């Protein structure tokens, strides 16, 4: 029996690389598109070291219609796509919104055009909790109404979901959108992890770089929010658990189980954890002291958001297995091994 082939766009990135490993473990074949704008090619070898399998790799930017068309001429019989390829820095998106709209939306539209031409029916979309904006009630469920996006990045995810829902309504594709919360941690091998090029945009690389002495200190963006300790609260999820949700989604698509051509799931732990609690856990479980200071709020940050994940637990038959300890210790092992 032939293995099902999954195209992973942005497959050398943080979440994409971990998902590729889990797809191999689940018996899928994987082909990757990545333009290396926020990833590095050595990750290909590390994927092979962990999984024993090496994905086919094409370096191209998905806004390039000609190169994307050439790719689909070469790679036949793709059964499903997982679409990660997008710019994802909330702060930068506020300063360079056009860059985000151009890249994130054109790449998706070009991909959907090619999927239709090549009769590829299945797609998992990398969405985000940012689609909820600043919600009125917590935890957010999949039915929580979207509020205005707090960043251009969040806008691209809202628009991406809207595009996919309307295309799915024409029955040319089946789509699962995964709205994930805050991925952290690293593969237990310490061969894969978050690899920021330039200044990090997420909390955990800031924490690990401060611990390693690469940064003089960690700056916490604001401590005057209406939360118990004044710092932002997020739903942090281990990247390996998140990767496995994508495998479950591919299973569901390929088994033709998607209802009405389009489904959406929150992918988190269901627990809100503050920035200071992350810092405390990192210090405790890694036995290291962090030098941190409180800075100004960052534009685009919601004070508090965490998920109701009961739908993903029940319908996707997926649940998290790794906790806060594994999140902070695996991130530190990756940092030490790679001295990023």
UniProtKB/TrEMBL annotation:
EC identifiers of the protein: 5.1.3.2
GO biological process: galactose metabolic process
Keyword Kinase: no
Enzyme class: isomerase
Domain NAD(P)-binding: 7-329
Catalytic activity: UDP-alpha-D-glucose = UDP-alpha-D-galactose
Alphabetically ordered keywords of this record: Carbohydrate metabolism, Isomerase, NAD
Pathway in which this enzyme or protein is active: Carbohydrate metabolism; galactose metabolism
Keyword match Isomerase: yes
Gene Ontology molecular function, alphabetical: UDP-glucose 4-epimerase activity
InterPro entries: NAD(P)-bd_dom, NAD(P)-bd_dom_sf, UDP_G4E
Cofactor: NAD(+)
Gene3D superfamilies, alphabetized: NAD(P)-binding Rossmann-like Domain (3.40.50.720), UDP-galactose 4-epimerase, domain 1 (3.90.25.10)
Cellular component, GO annotation: cytosol
Oligomer status and interactors: Homodimer.
NCBIfam families, A to Z: galE (TIGR01179)
Family: Belongs to the NAD(P)-dependent epimerase/dehydratase family.
Annotated protein name in UniProt: UDP-glucose 4-epimerase
Native source organism of the sequence: Ginsengibacter hankyongi
């Amino acid at each position: 029996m032939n293995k099902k082939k999954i195209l992973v766009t942005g497959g050398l990135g943080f979440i994409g690389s971990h998902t590729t490993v889990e797809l191999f473990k689940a018996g899928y074949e994987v082909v990757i598109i990545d333009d290396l704008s926020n990833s590095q090619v050595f990750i290909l070898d590390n994927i092979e070291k962990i999984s024993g399998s090496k994905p086919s790799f094409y370096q191209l930017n998905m806004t390039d219609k000609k190169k994307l068309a050439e790719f689909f001429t070469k790679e036949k019989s793709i059964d499903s796509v997982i679409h990660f390829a997008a710019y994802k820095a909330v702060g930068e998106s506020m300063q360079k919104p056009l860059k985000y709209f151009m890249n994130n939306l054109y790449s998706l539209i070009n991909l959907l055009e090619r999927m239709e031409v090549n009769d590829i029916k299945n797609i998992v979309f990398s969405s985000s909790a940012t689609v909820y904006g600043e919600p009125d009630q917590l935890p957010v469920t999949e039915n929580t109404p979207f509020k205005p996006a707090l960043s251009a990045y969040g806008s691209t995810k809202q628009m991406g979901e809207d595009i996919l829902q309307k295309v799915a309504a024409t029955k040319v594709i089946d789509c699962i959108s995964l709205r994930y919360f805050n991925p952290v941690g690293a593969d237990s091998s310490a061969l894969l992890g978050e690899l920021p090029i330039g200044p990090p945009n997420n909390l955990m690389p800031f924490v690990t770089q401060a611990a390693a002495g690469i940064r003089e200190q960690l700056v916490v963006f604001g401590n005057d929010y209406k939360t118990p300790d004044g710092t932002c609260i997020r739903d942090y999820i281990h990247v390996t658990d998140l990767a496995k949700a994508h495998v479950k989604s591919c299973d569901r698509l390929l088994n033709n189980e998607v209802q009405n051509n389009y489904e959406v799931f929150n992918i988190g732990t269901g627990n809100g954890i503050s920035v200071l609690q992350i810092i405390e856990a990192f210090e405790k479980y890694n036995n290291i002291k962090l030098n941190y200071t409180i800075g100004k709020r960052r534009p685009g940050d919601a004070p508090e958001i965490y998920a109701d994940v009961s739908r993903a637990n029940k319908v996707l038959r997926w649940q998290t297995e790794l906790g806060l300890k594994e999140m902070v210790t695996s991130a530190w092992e990756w940092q030490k091994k790679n001295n990023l």
